[in-house]
UniProtKB/TrEMBL annotation:
Subcellular location: Cell membrane
Name of the protein in question: Purine permease
MF annotations from Gene Ontology: xanthine transmembrane transporter activity
Sequence similarity: Belongs to the nucleobase:cation symporter-2 (NCS2) (TC 2.A.40) family.
Segments passing through the bilayer: 32-54, 60-78
Organism classification: Bacteria, Bacillati, Bacillota, Bacilli, Bacillales
Membrane topology category: Multi-pass membrane protein
Main location: membrane
Domain of life, source organism: Bacteria
């Protein structure tokens, strides 16, 4: 997967800590839902007009979501240390 990422100038296959916060925040751990969302993102990648709709999300909404996710990651990290 990492070689394909290099060939297609994409991100390498890696885990991100934001996923831990997102799973903890939403409580969704079902693989079917994850696969469905992944498929929807792939479809959006092939239809740029529909994907452009996601650009109208206000920056304050994105900032609030990031604050919540990173806060959950930090809380989970502190929980692991104790």
């Amino acid at each position: 997967a990492m070689v394909l990422g290099g060939i297609f100038n994409a991100f390498p296959y890696t885990t991100y800590s934001q996923n831990v916060g997102l799973v903890q925040l939403t409580g969704v751990r079902n693989r079917v839902i994850i696969y469905t969302c992944g498929g929807m993102l792939i479809v959006l990648g092939f239809i740029p007009k529909i994907a452009a709709i996601t650009t109208i999300i206000p920056k304050s909404v994105l900032g609030g979501a990031m604050l919540a996710m990173f806060g959950m990651v930090m809380a989970y990290g502190i929980k692991m240390l104790s």
